[in-house]
Design goal:
Layout (H helix, E strand, L loop, with lengths): L2 H11 L10 H21 L3 E2 L1 H4 L1 E5 L7 H12 L3 E5 L5 E6 L3 H15 L7 E5 L1 H29 L2 H25 L2 E2 L1 H28 L11 H37 L6 H30 L3 H20 L11 H10 L4
Parallel strand pairs: 1-6
Antiparallel strand pairs: 2-4, 2-5, 3-4
Helix pairs in contact: 1-9, 2-7, 2-10, 4-5, 6-7, 7-8, 7-10, 8-9, 8-10, 8-12, 9-10
Length: about 350
């Protein structure tokens, strides 16, 4: 068995583990710092909205020897606006200029043809109105709102309202970080970006639900025993799914990373950046939030209940009594782990 596989087996059985829940305020602090940075970036720099949201024109040229930098300079001189130029696989160029109306676009097309030494009829011009982009943005917000509502309703029914609230906060956390990164790096926001954002919500939720499912099973009839507090059962649930979460996240990040760093970076296929950056950042943030944010939040909400407060008091009293009598039963021993894990995975009690 590999070292990672051996570690995963030990984590699953509870023989080793990390106190994620006990150090939750450290993770909260890290997340708050990152979130504040993302919000400041959004407020100061804003998002580089694509032409689909601002309106403008996209010119596609035939094969030309003119460089991207020279074409960008020519396009900006002809239009008076900033231009984004991308090299196409055909050898042509894709020139994107925002805030151009039909009359101005025709004039720019003529000037570009002269500068690029091609015929004006060979340049394809597509106009995008700002109202179309506004419709896309409104539909995206509507879809996001409906998704959030359905998630809360489903999790409240399948698990409980505390888990629904924690999952919602984790999702908002992931979205904020991802959008903040877009503001920081200045990547263009396109419909592909919106698709990527909606995709990562499902992935983030999947990781969170896996941990919640283990916690739900592990905490059945928890008040009828005096060996573990709710936070300890929650911590075991995180450790039991830790390697699985790491493996699925790494496997998902590898192809997305190839799209972002190789496709968008080395091969300069800039259009791949639209969706790949949101996926890459969102997948990483989703894995982080499911482990360090969602479950610890559930613990904070759950342990406010009188029943859980009473349970914790009984568990600590029993351990204090056991320590006084010289007993080794403290609720954390390796011998206790198989029983907790079995209970968490199958719902059976011993």
């Amino acid at each position: 068995m590999s070292k990672l596989g051996d570690l995963g087996a030990k984590l699953y059985r509870g023989e080793v583990g990390y106190d994620f829940v006990g150090k939750r305020f450290v993770w909260y602090g890290v997340s708050i710092l990152i979130t504040i940075t993302a919000i400041v970036a959004l407020a100061v720099q804003g998002l580089n909205m694509g032409i689909e949201f601002k309106g403008g024109a996209v010119f596609t040229t035939p094969k030309t020897s003119v460089s991207e930098s020279q074409a960008r300079e020519d396009a900006e001189k002809a239009s008076g606006h900033d231009a984004i130029v991308q090299k196409l696989g055909t050898g042509g160029l894709r020139i994107q200029i925002s805030e151009l109306d039909t009359e101005a676009a025709a004039d720019v097309k003529t000037k570009l043809a002269a500068d690029l030494k091609v015929e004006a009829g060979q340049i394809n011009a597509d106009l995008v109105g700002p109202s179309w982009g506004e419709q896309i943005a409104n539909k995206a917000w509507t879809g996001l709102g409906v998704f959030m509502i359905l998630v809360v309703i489903y999790l409240a029914i399948a698990f409980e309202w505390r888990m629904a609230i924690a999952a919602l906060i984790a999702l908002i956390h992931d979205l904020t970080i991802t959008v903040g990164v877009y503001a920081l790096v200045g990547f263009e926001v396109t419909p592909g970006t919106v698709i990527g954002l909606l995709t990562i919500l499902g992935y983030s939720l999947y990781d969170t639900v896996v941990v919640f499912d283990g916690l739900k099973e592990g905490s059945k009839d928890i008040t009828k025993q005096t060996r573990w507090t709710y936070s300890e059962v929650a911590n075991r649930s995180i450790n039991g799914t830790l390697v699985r979460s790491i493996n699925t996240t790494v496997v998902a990040l590898l192809p997305v990373g190839a799209l972002l760093f190789i496709g968008g970076g080395i091969l300069d296929a800039g259009m791949l950046n639209d969706i790949s950056l949101s996926l890459f950042v969102g997948l990483a943030a989703g894995a982080y939030s499911s482990i360090f944010i969602a479950t610890p939040l559930v613990v904070d909400l759950k342990e406010r209940e009188p029943a859980m407060k009473a349970l914790k008091k009984r568990v600590l009293a029993k351990r204090a009594s056991a320590a006084k009598d010289g007993s080794s039963e403290d609720g954390f021993g390796a011998g206790d782990a198989p029983e907790v894990v079995a209970q968490g995975r199958s719902g059976r009690r011993r």
